[in-house]
Amino acid sequence: MGVPKFAAWLTKKYPAMVMDCCPADVHGLYIDLNGLIHPCCHSESDATVALRAEVEKMRSICLAIEALVVTVKPQHVLYIAVDGVAPRAKMNQQRARRYMNAGAPLTNAANPIHGGSHEISAGVVAAIEKEFTDAERTLAERDLEEVNQALLDDMLYGGGGGGADDAAPGATMDSLFSIDAHVQEAATLPDSVSAAAAAVSEERFDSNCISPGTSFMEKVAAVVRDFVKRKLVDAEAQCISGDGPLALPAAPSARAPSVPSPWTGLTIVFSDSNTAGEGEHKIMDFLRTQSAFPRFNGGGCHVIAGLDADLIFLSLSLHIPRVVILRDYGRSSYDKALLPIAAGGTMMPTNGGSAKAGATGDIPASSSISSMGSAAAAAAVATTSTTIIAEVEEASVTPPPNGSVDTTPSSRRMAEDDETALDAVDGAVEVEDGSSVASPLPASSFVSPVPPPHIASVAVDASTSYEFFDMDVLGSSLVSEVYQLFQEKGMEVHCNPLDNPANCVASNGFNFYCSGGRETSEAATAAAKTTTAATEGTAPAGKRDTGKRKPPASTSLANASAAPPFHPCTSASNSKIIDDIIVLGMLLGNDFLPHSPSVYCGESAMDTLLDVYVGAVLPYGYLTGGLYEIQLLQLERLFRAYAPVEAVRFRQHAIQAGLMTPQEAATRELCSAADRRCWRDTYVRTTSLKNEAGVQAACRAYVEGFRFVWRYYSSISLQVSWSWCYPFHHAPLALDVANFLRAQGPHVQATLAPPKLECLPPSPFCQLLCVLPPTSCKLVPAALRASMAEPPPELVDTFPKTWKVDFTGSYGKDHLAVVLLPFANLPDLDRLAREHADSYTAEERARNALRSTHLVIESRAGRAAAAAAAAAAAAGAEDNMATTALKEEPERGKDKRGAATTKARGFCIRGDGLQPLAAEDVPPELRDCTSIMCSSLVDVAPPLSRPRIYSHTVPIPNLTVHPDGTRVPAERRPSYRHGGRCHGGNRGHDEGDKGGASLDAASSAAAKAHATKPPMLFGEFAISLVLAALLAVAVTARGSASLLDGLQLLLQWCSLGFVVLGMVFALGLAVASKGRAAGSGLHRHNIFTAFADWQCVSCLSMNFSRNRRCFICRAPFDPRRCVALFSGRSGPEPPLMDPDHSAYTVTYGITPLGSQEP
After folding, report:
1. Rounded to the nearest 5°, which phi and psi values hold at 1079?
2. Strand 301-305 to 26-32 pairing
3. Residue numbers in the chain where pLDDT is lower than 70
4. CATH number at residue 287
5. pTM for this predicted structure
6. What would the pLDDT profile of 1025-1071 be if each residue is shown by its tens digit?
7. Are residues 705 and 579 in the same domain?
């Protein structure tokens, strides 16, 4: 899940980071497959997704992968990662989510309310039920069942299109894979298999099966492996023949130009759920290791597909150039995966398995997955992990009725489009995106009915619903804003931060400076180039230091003394600014730690944290140290500086509730008697902290959690603790954490030990027992189900029937609520799983096995090409090309690939982790294919490398001041349009911004336009004009009877003069660059949905930005010491800062799976 509302805050604050199209030169595509599995299998907004047959879910997953590959077009690497077992800290969040899926709010312990909000009472439901008789309710249920059945039979919802074969059990699995004559001999599966498939299809889909160790995830892995194999084989055959494996030779003059498949020559790394680790962290481990070797950076951008906000933090922690995050908000590729082209979908129609389907043009409810040859087919029937493949063959081998001949998708498209048909006669069909789809053989060449094509043969168009986040733009914008805040607040660096070794070392151990504060030669050179290249993310991080180089002898202390004074934002170590911002983001909450009590991203809390960080932490150095550590003295400064902000938030709520007076709240004492009485003690008592002993334990664990999460984000999975977890549901108050750290003494870094590194992950079955509710007991082996349904005494708390849910600060969203489940007894669960290990079947033992390797799949031609390219690079043949690529970035939107056959494809994985795979270890789906090669990849610690340097010159709205005194105006995020995002939002590292020059020029022009037409103070102008006009009318009316009277005439002229003076005064206010609205002069880069106020240093009162002085103590605004407080323009309900959490706590209970609504 990541950090709620964090991505929305970023896109509103930095719209330039959002791109509407993918860069042309993509080195690798990295897919977190769980982000595709969930929307393809269930949906909160569309219950029919879960009702689809399992085979349709598998087909959607394959089509979603294909849509990503076709859209992104990676040149070298495709990494597909599935979530494996997660660290203990992550299991708490997984456990809460799965129990909420199986639970419902209770008004009492025995009366669950299904499908309703927690605010609905049983009395309301009972009153509604009394309005209907039993007969009426029975009739309504029958009607609903008929509608449900009609939807199930509808082709658009996974039905069979009404054909006779579609109604048979298992018919939804037909036509998934093309099969040969050997497989057609095995015409029918046993009746028991069909009956089991029919029974499974009638059960409600349990989304908790998307967990490591389940048979469903084993099937997903088998399906994806087979799909990848077929794509590689088809791509290689197409590359050899020119038009694909089914194409006939044709005259060169008549054939349309061929475009190679985007799968051609790709090196594919597939990590299934049997390999421990979350999918996004597997991707980061690969990138972190490979980017440490020369010639990896600068060869193209790296596109990571996923929706979790964690990906943003993880991508920033890499500190490598040209990382792009792909996010699919619309998920149209999944919704349309089951629709024919005629209905706006991506699936080409085929002649189905019935006469009715063939006559009407409907698609059978089948399509996608099978084995490739007879050997693989036999293995699939015998292997449980490929049961879904075996079910396919039962329906696929049945000849089409009435002698109809199945055709390929391209032939159906040929029949529908005359112009396309003319091209198809010559062997290939040119589709919209330029790719070619093979045409079928002539009818005379067929001696038997042709089976339906595999899903890998389906053509998928590039998606236009994707959104791309440019991490180069984001990183440089964040560093630039910190720099501008440092200047705006007039901060100065205290002493010399480089005297502290922790400020000189990167998180991975790279030392930026030599003794005496001198930068290394490479770091100094890179720092000098930040204004010209760091924004694009090119040369500074293009070649990475392996840690073996030494600075030249000419570098001396004299040179160091001549260098400008150290500034944390402009130095070669400014990547640590990004590391610090990642640590600040932990206060927003994540999958491992709860958010700080007053920190809500929806209220622009990150802006307040940046203000506190710049004023209280950065002048003393960085927040992060070396070797994946956090400087605890700096962490104490952060919490102590944020404590007044937290106090004023709670005091505001207490004043609104009538518990405190403004005078009581106006005090510098952070924990006064009034504070304890009104909110502090209430928060402790009504949360999981309970008492003062709990507060101290929570403070210790919360600090440990910061250190754990930072190591988890910045290191590899081999170097984190798999057993640590935060043992509370709520976070301690900021002042309590600061006091706890101060009580440890000046050597707090040595006094508080980091979490112990436990490198042994739990088994998949142990994790299933930990995270699954009893209603999902069918997902575990039969030997373990009784312990879940009727747990022994030591496991009663592990499998609760009821639990509490805290909705405080959840914005009314169930997924943002705090689930107060008892923590699972993991040691006893692990012992239970081990005790029953002897009763596991062979298939269950395979599901419970843990691997430390990832599967690497390559075509033999791609491996040869990659090896040749690696040899040429090692010989120095590509040195000049690499240097040019680092210095000159290709223009955005301009495809510089050239012909695909002229550029070496594939990727040679560096390091010692790649090992050959034994024949018996090759998955069954890949054993019969001789044109591909399989290897195993083991994660290894990456070599030492220097992080990139970020630009600090990106203009920041409302903060960057131009020479003429104007400021860069704020820019709204561009709106969507048909076919992508407006041009204004498509700015990134490829578009220019050389040293901030283009952005600076654009911002300067916008500032000048803003200065020529400043905002008018319309209210003041109108009021002055109306008052002057009324006075003039009154004087004129009184003197209208005697206009010759000199005194009255004088008064009239005076009134007219007053009108003129009033208008001049109003116009002066309207055009003044600084009027009364300037107020305190507080300038911050805040989003349009948030207010920016300031906190008085003397009494801690919050004041509006227009106030020059505090409205309580009349102290003036101090730009250096006063903190900017950000808040949303409309407060959510229930209020966020209510310390009494018991008022928003609801009891939930287990709901039987069969009684839940689909």
Report:
1. 55, -125
2. parallel
3. 1, 107-130, 148, 151-203, 238-258, 330-453, 514-564, 862-906, 971-1022, 1024-1025, 1028-1029, 1031-1047, 1049-1050, 1064-1079, 1131, 1152-1158
4. 3.40.50.12390
5. 0.76
6. 677 667 666 666 555 555 456 667 667 777 777 777 777 666 655 54
7. yes
Kindly tell me the burial class for residue 894, based on how many C-beta atoms sit within 10 Å of its own C-beta (0-12, 13-18, 19 or more). Answer: exposed
pLDDT (0 to 100) of residue 407? 35
- 1124 within domain boundaries: yes
Q: Are strands 1102-1103 and 1090-1095 parallel, antiparallel or unpaired?
A: antiparallel
How many structural domains are present in the chain?
A: 4
Question: Quick one: 801 and 931 in the same domain?
Answer: no
Instruction: Give the closest residue to 435 by CA, choosing from 177, 292, 260.
Output: 260
**Closest to 254 in 3D by CA, of 421, 411, 427:** 427
- Residue 1135, pLDDT score: 81
Q: Are residues 608 and 731 in the same domain?
A: yes
In this prediction, residue 294 carries a pLDDT of 86
> In the prediction, which pLDDT does 867 show?
63
784 and 700, same domain (yes or no): no
Measured between alpha carbons, how far is 552 from 573 in angstroms, rounded to an integer? Answer: 19
Copy the structure tokens of residue 776.
């999902």
Q: Are residues 316 and 458 in the same domain?
A: yes
Q: What is the signed CA dihedral for 1118, 1122, 1126, 1127, rounded to 10 degrees?
A: -100
pLDDT tens per residue, range 958-975: 999 988 888 988 766 554
Strands (E), 1041-1139: 1090-1095, 1102-1103, 1124-1128
Whole-number CA gyration radius for the chain: 33
Predicted local distance difference test score (pLDDT) of residue 963: 86
**Amino acid type, 1018:** F
Using DSSP, state whether 1124 is helix, strand or coil. Answer: strand
Count of other CB atoms within 10 angstroms of residue 786: 12
At which of 707, 728, 751 does a domain end?
751
DSSP line for 490-522? T----S-GGGSGGGSB-TTS-B-B-GGGPBPHH
Same-domain pairing of 820 and 862: no
Q: Which domain covers residue 1101, as residue numbers?
A: 1090-1130
Give kind and range of the element (H or E) at residue 1049: helix 1046-1071
- pLDDT at residue 355 in the model: 33
At residue 76, what is the residue type? H
Residue 707 lies in a domain: yes
What pLDDT was estimated at residue 4?
82
Q: Is 570 helix (H, G, I), strand (E, B) or coil?
A: coil
Q: Which of 968, 990, 1023 is the last residue of a domain?
A: 968
Tracing tokens 């739990």 back to the chain, one arrives at: 762
Please state the three-class secondary structure of 176-237 as a single string: CCCCCHHHHHCCCCCHHHHHHHHHHHHCCCCHHHCCCCCHHHHHHHHHHHHHHHHHHHHHHH
Q: Rounded CA gap, 118 and 105, in Å?
A: 5
For residue 384, is it within any domain?
no
Distance CA 650, CA 10 (A): 26
In a domain? residue 1158: no
Q: How many CB atoms lie within 10 A of CB 314?
A: 26
Structural contact between residues 493 and 499, judged by C-beta atoms closer than 8 angstroms: no
Largest pairwise CA distance in the chain: 121
Contact at 8 Å (CB) between 566 and 574?
A: no
- List the Cα angle 24/26/31 in 5-degree steps: 125
Same domain, 803 and 699: no
Residues 822, 959, single domain; the answer is no
